[in-house]
Amino acid sequence: MPLTPDQLNKAWQEFKVFRSPNARVELINHYAYLVKITSGRLVTSLPNGLEREDLISAGVVGLIKAVDQFDPTRDVKFETYAIALIRGAILEMLRSEDWVPRSIRERLKALDRAMMSLESRMGRPATEQEVADDLGITRQEVGELMVRMGRTNVYSLDDILGTGDGEESVHFVDMLADDSSDTGGEVEGREIRRLLSEGVDKLPERERLVVALYYSEGLTFKEIGKVLGVSESRVYQLHTQAMSRLRNFMRQVVGVSPV
């Protein structure tokens, strides 16, 4: 049974102040519904060999991490923080399963490199036709790749700072609230959050709205499509373009090497 607001505040206090294991369990059980919601929205169709329970198990790991690391004194809603870590844990599991064929990954990386290169040269986002001409493929193929990119979650706000092949990514959500971080880490985290917010503000209006509705409001791509009056596939494309622009922006201002 869900905790009342008073019971919830008491549980947070008992866990964070007195490190009560019972309060920790109460918090995990109370917020368990976030795992089911997030896993259902993140992966609508399961890859071969995976069961819904696999996603749930990975999501629970993210929820437990969120409860353990969350700082109630900071100006961050727990649900927002927890959903981000749950999503991140599920994505990590999917990556470890390597369920996207290497040939597709290579094509997606080529698409990303072409989009960034063209934007750097032209000083503006490239159109689908310009990307198609650069890659020597059709505009339709570019659109299909963008949809595939969104559906395979190659790009996510959870790890927008990829540091290169074989290296560990910097997870933005891990900086939202981390009791164990030192003062220097907190300052760095605040600066990266500021820069990322600046990057989001620079996005075209529709891409900015997709980012807000997906990451802040928790809507699915299908639900966002209804809000914008476009197809679900178009929302995937807008999300992919937004993530590519944010990655490019963060690499430029933070100096992270391209993937």
Automatic annotation (TrEMBL):
Keywords: DNA-binding, Sigma factor, Transcription, Transcription regulation. GO terms for biological process: DNA-templated transcription initiation. GO terms for molecular function: DNA binding; DNA-directed RNA polymerase activity; sigma factor activity. Residues 54-67, 220-246 form the RNA polymerase sigma-70 domain. It comes from the Bacteria. InterPro entries: RNA_pol_sigma-70_dom, RNA_pol_sigma70, RNA_pol_sigma70_r2, RNA_pol_sigma70_r3, RNA_pol_sigma70_r4, RNA_pol_sigma_FliA_WhiG, RNA_pol_sigma_r2, RNA_pol_sigma_r3/r4-like. The keyword ATP-binding does not apply. The keyword tRNA-binding does not apply. Pfam families: Sigma70_r2, Sigma70_r3, Sigma70_r4. PANTHER family: RNA POLYMERASE SIGMA FACTOR FLIA (PTHR30385:SF7), SIGMA FACTOR F FLAGELLAR (PTHR30385). Belongs to the sigma-70 factor family. Sigma factors are initiation factors that promote the attachment of RNA polymerase to specific initiation sites and are then released. This is RNA polymerase sigma factor.
